[in-house]
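Q: I'm a student working through a structural biology exercise. My instructor gave each of us a protein and asked us to get a predicted structure, then write a short paragraph describing it. Mine is Lysozyme. I'm not confident about reading structure output yet, so if you can add a plain explanation after the tokens, that would really help. Here is the sequence I was given:
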Amino acid sequence: MTEKVITEKNTVLKTVLGTVIVGMFVGSYLLLSRPLLHDLSSAMPSTARPSDTFSKPVTPAALHSSPAEQSALPPTTDKSAVITSSEEKSVPKRQKARGIDVSHDQGRVVWRDVIASGIDFVYLKASDGMTFLDPMFATNIQALIPHQILVGAYHFFEAGDDPHQQLNNFLRATKGHPLTLAPMVDVEVSRGVKPQVLQKRLRQFLSGVEQATGCTPVIYSYGDFWQTYIGDSFNHYPFWLADYSPEMIRPAGLQHIQLWQHSEQGRLPGIRGAVDLDKALEQTALETIRCRVRQEAI
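A: Happy to help. First, here is the predicted structure for Lysozyme. I'll explain a few features afterward.
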């Protein structure tokens, strides 16, 4: 073997030996560093996987908000609470009390349906003049008893008839019935009677009603009729104004208007044909005219 060959063999052996030593060193290093790398990876925050992104519901607000705004959103949004809040803001305030006045002209009324439509009070015609008794009064008032609604009775005043006989007719019609609103007198025809005579007879009738029932009666009429035939000497009585204008026109000098009949062509469930529609002008109007009529009145 020549010296050159020996030298080349020594060089190869050194290279192989160095490679083996380096490999052993690297392998030992990797083996010893695995626990440390595992601990470091466990301590680092994990990134969300695509499936995690859709694992929670996305709120409508988050869909339309910027990334910065989304980061400020709470983790969950109580959708029902938001709806409730908006509904509460949109709920209108309680409307003024609504009522109707009814006579035999409406025929048989299905009171359950009428009251379910939102009616708060009812006036029933009881009598007219000296002899007429409304044939549906007793039927209507008995049908209303189970419903616990405010009920009043009214008399149609005939200016040409004796006021005392009219009073007796009205009291005969209403005796023994559970009325919870003050009696009302409908004064809208003069029958050719002069204003002074009408006023005298009306005053006698009203005084008799108040004495017999213990309630201050309500006067019902139109603005023009009040100005011509009734007048401000009756202003201490509660008044029920019939006026079919879009907005009520208050007659000059008329005081204490509690109720407004705003339509004579109303339609309600439970009533065939038209019916008069009424409103209480103030929230306290019904309390003003509320009165439990003496059932023993004769």
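A: Here are two points you could use in your paragraph. The two ends are 156 Å apart (CA to CA). Strands lie at 98-102, 121-128, 132-133, 150-156, 184-186, 218-222, 239-242, 257-266, 275-280. It's a good idea to check both against the output above yourself.
Q: Great, thank you!
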